[in-house]
Amino acid sequence: MNNFFIVGMPASGKSRLGKFISSRTSLKFIDLDVEIEKSIKMKVKEIFENEGEDFFRKYETKTLKDIISNEDNFILATGGGTPYFNNNMTLINNSGISLFIDVDKKILFERISKNDKRPLLKKTDSLEEKISEIYNERISFYKKSKHHLKSNIKNQALSIINSYS
Question: Residue 56 — very low, low, confident or very high, per pLDDT cuts 50/70/90?
Fold first, then answer.
């Protein structure tokens, strides 16, 4: 079983890293949010607006379980909140190798301030405070990852993944 899961904050580069890893290995790239959007036929932002966060989180866990049951040899970019809800981090660690991308909050702020598609970060007076709040809530879950990547992320991730081959 070569299943790898990338976890981290919104805008940390999970999908970008997953695509990079997939292009350099035989691993299939899967983006959890994209799979949810394809299944429900709505963007994540619309799901939050129309159905609410509880619905989204339950569907996210169902989709994660479906992928784990039906796929093998993949690199999966989770949503930023995936590890924080429904015991998903335990499920992830029991189903493969987790990689936590730990990106500086200033970089997250820069990336998020240029992008309005993140539903939990839209309605806030202070984006920097909201990013810190979410990071502080989730960090203990992210740190349950088997690998913690903070610098030279692409090369570190590739090296880790190749060590499991």
Answer: very high
